[in-house]
Amino acid sequence: QVQLVESGGGLVQAGGSLRLSCAASASVFSITAMGWYRQTPGKQRELVASIKSGGSANYADSVKGRFTISRDNAKNTVYLQMNSLKPEDTAVYYCNAVLAGIPLWSWGQGTQVTVSS
């Protein structure tokens, strides 16, 4: 079973930055599209950024221009650089393999991001 370990969350003021990391145990990581999701209480988990094995990325409109997803296939790790953070970015952030927007693996524990105004 694939294990996903997210890290890098924390408390930051509006306008600040955070860099999230997600390490995956999967041997197929390098050929798998990966995504970052976020969830707030009472809401569905939403996909905010994804990156294909070759490096092409897509973003939700709400984070476009502020967030950057990247990956290091040698380390089986995907990153999310979050700049110009807003209070509405407050959520638990998760990573997962993604296919047509659908997560493929079991979820990790996530990492909490809290943006204060």
Structural write-up:
This protein has 117 residues and is mainly β. Helices cover 0% and strands 50% of the residues. It has no helices and eleven strands. The strands form two sheets. Strands 2, 4, 5, 6, 9, 10 and 11 form a seven-stranded mixed beta sheet that branches. It has a four-stranded antiparallel beta sheet with strand order 1-3-8-7, with no helix packed on it. The model has no long low-confidence stretch (mean pLDDT 95).
Number of continuous helical runs: 0
Main beta sheet: strand number and arrangement? 7 strands, mixed
SSE-based structural type:
mainly beta
State the helical fraction.
under 10%
* Global Rg: 13 Å
Residue windows where pLDDT falls under 50 for at least 5 positions: none
Distance between the termini: 39 Å
Integer average pLDDT: 95
- Can you tell me the overall shape? globular
User: How many distinct beta strands?
Assistant: 11
Order of helices and strands: EEEEEEEEEEE
Give the strand content.
over 45%
